[in-house]
């Protein structure tokens, strides 16, 4: 039953993106994973490799994420992984024509938020882990929230249906690619996440 709901939601999202951006092409990338997951990871948006494979977190940041979640003793197959924005936001180099990633605009976030919230309600995890500023700001509806101040600080998040889940903010795995000094902070935060899961749900390492 949940799989059917997931398939319908995914199809609706893809059709919506196609209609909104026609005639421009946007390759949608929807979330995937365990529909009964106790932990859901929410990133910013798919990158180039994610768009090629049409799967979330399979590029460099995804490999870092996989390495870190191993420390929790949780397999990726136990998680549900998705992004706020369901397509790759890009900018074009006028000289080379090459496309590169850019942060999503507020409009792009707002376009995709209804689908993200429905994803969360469908899976209904115990804990939603936001990865980076975009996911944190979108899920808290606070554009001034910064991961530098809020990382590893647990708060309650209310869903449109009245349900409440825990929100656990983490740095985005990609941030470690550009700032290696964050690796230790990320590891410490994951230890805190693992401790939180054990204390509250007897899950994780």
Short description:
This protein is of the alpha/beta class and 205 residues long.
Average residue pLDDT: 92
CATH class: Alpha Beta
Which CATH architecture? 3-Layer(aba) Sandwich
Helix coverage percent: 40-55%
Please give the domain count.
1
Task: Find the count of extended strands (DSSP E, 2+ residues).
Answer: 8
Order of helices and strands: HEEHHEEEHEHHEEHH
Characterize the largest beta sheet: strand count, sense, and whether it forms a barrel: 6 strands, mixed
Radius of gyration: 16 Å
Compute the separation of the termini in Å.
30 Å
Find the structural class using helix and strand composition.
alpha/beta
Q: How much of the polypeptide forms β-strand, as a percent range?
A: 15-25%
Topology:
Elements: H1 2-21, E1 32-33, E2 39-43, H2 48-53, H3 60-70, E3 80-83, E4 90-92, E5 99-101, H4 106-123, E6 127-131, H5 133-140, H6 147-150, E7 155-158, E8 164-170, H7 173-178, H8 182-201
């Amino acid at each position: 039953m949940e799989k059917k709901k997931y398939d319908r939601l995914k199809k609706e999202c893809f059709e919506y993106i196609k209609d909104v951006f026609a005639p421009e092409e946007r390759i949608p990338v929807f979330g995937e994973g365990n529909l009964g997951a106790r932990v859901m990871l929410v990133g910013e948006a798919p990158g180039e490799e994610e768009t090629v494979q049409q799967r979330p977190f399979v590029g460099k940041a995804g490999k870092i994420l996989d390495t870190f979640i191993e420390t929790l003793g949780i397999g990726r197959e136990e998680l549900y992984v998705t992004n706020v924005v369901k397509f790759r936001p890009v900018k074009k180099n006028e000289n080379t024509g090459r496309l590169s990633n850019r942060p999503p605009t507020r409009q792009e976030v707002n376009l995709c938020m209804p689908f993200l919230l429905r994803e969360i309600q469908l899976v209904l995890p115990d804990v939603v882990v936001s990865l980076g500023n975009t996911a944190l700001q979108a899920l808290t509806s606070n554009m001034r929230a910064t991961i530098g101040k809020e990382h590893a600080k647990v708060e309650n998040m209310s869903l449109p249906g009245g349900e409440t889940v825990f929100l656990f903010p983490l740095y985005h795995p990609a941030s470690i690619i550009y700032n290696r000094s964050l690796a230790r902070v990320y590891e410490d935060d994951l230890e805190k996440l693992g401790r939180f899961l054990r204390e509250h749900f007897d899950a994780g390492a």
